[in-house]
TrEMBL record:
Pfam families: adh_short_C2. The keyword Nucleotide-binding does not apply. It comes from Exiguobacterium undae. It comes from the Bacteria. This is 2,4-dienoyl-CoA reductase. Keywords: NADP, Oxidoreductase. PANTHER family: PEROXISOMAL 2,4-DIENOYL-COA REDUCTASE, PEROXISOMAL 2,4-DIENOYL-COA REDUCTASE [(3E)-ENOYL-COA-PRODUCING].
Length: 254
């Protein structure tokens, strides 16, 4: 029987690439997002691929909406095995100029949103007696390094990385679930690239700091996600894989 996966923030960038690739790989795919127009376009794009899918409008900051999305998915496909916590929010702002609500907004999307969706998912696992489910989280290398100028995102991603490891142990024992993470480097055609590479000069500086000399693509992230969620990766648990061309290891960029 086909397995079902829910991808948050799946209407653009890496989320959309992962959704399309997972449908190609034979999953039933459910995409959530906040923007109705983007959801409609994603629905059309997913229709080009054989199989079943659905789109749901929701905000990961709303725990009840997360539970409703999981229950809607279970009603449609019988059960929900897997989740990609891809939805994120970010902006560059010096921390001493950041408002408390700016901090809260990013932490709410990234860290609390990951918890909200994971918690809703496990309620479904309990009701449907799902064993061997999966969660894939998206972090960034500033989860374990410094994130000057993006403090709320860095702190939240650090939380998500810890939650990845914590749930890998807790839900590994309890549900034989696998919980892993990807740490993408600079990836083209993403919200992160649009927001963080502020000018062509800045983007060029980032590119030069990548040992492989280029940005990654959403499709490369999607390829890794498909493998991490496959049976081939059945012994992978609590791991974070950096797919970044060696970017974070490059301590001497000059
Ligand atoms: C300072 C800012 C700001 C900015 C927003 N705020 N943008 N402060 N500089 N550039 C403050 C606002 O003033 C407000 O605080 C608070 O944040 C909430 O802003 P809203 O616009 O009302 O929030 P909302 O509409 O919910 O939008 C959330 C958002 C937005 C995060 C601000 O950008 C968004 O929805 N982003 C989703 C897509 C995204 O960001 N993708 C990139 C992910 S990149 P006050 O005090 O005024 O009320 C990523 C990692 C990349 O995750 C890593 C690459 C290596």
């Amino acid at each position: 029987m086909k397995k079902t996966i829910l991808v948050t923030g799946g209407t653009s960038g890496m989320g959309k690439a992962m959704a399309l690739a997972l449908k190609e790989a034979g999953w039933n795919v459910v995409v959530t997002g906040r923007d109705a127009e983007r959801l409609q376009q994603t629905d059309l794009d997913l229709q080009q691929i054989a199989g079943e899918h659905a789109v749901i409008q929701m905000d990961v900051r709303d725990p009840e909406a997360c539970l409703a999305a999981v229950n809607q998915t279970r009603a449609r496909f019988g059960r929900l095995e897997a989740l990609i916590n891809n939805a994120a929010g970010n902006f560059i702002c010096p921390t001493d100029e950041l408002s408390p609500n700016g901090w809260k907004t990013v932490v709410d999307i990234v860290l609390n949103g990951t918890f909200n969706c994971s918690h809703a998912l496990v309620k479904g696992w309990q009701e449907d007696q799902v064993v061997g489910g999966q969660i894939l989280n998206i972090v960034a290398s500033y989860a374990w390094q410094a994130g000057a100028g993006v403090a709320p995102s860095a702190a939240a991603k650090a939380g998500v990385l810890n939650l990845t490891r914590t749930l890998a142990v807790e839900w590994g024992y309890k549900y034989q679930a696998r919980v892993n993470a990807i740490s993408p480097g600079p990836i083209e055609r993403t919200g992160g690239a649009d927001k963080l590479a502020m000018s062509p000069e800045h983007a060029e500086r980032i590119r030069r700091n990548v040992p492989l000399g280029r940005f990654g693509t959403p499709e490369e992230i999607a390829g890794l996600a498909v493998w991490m969620l496959s049976d081939q990766a059945g012994y992978l648990n609590g791991e974070c894989i950096a797919l970044d061309g060696g970017h974070w290891l490059n301590k001497q960029p000059f």
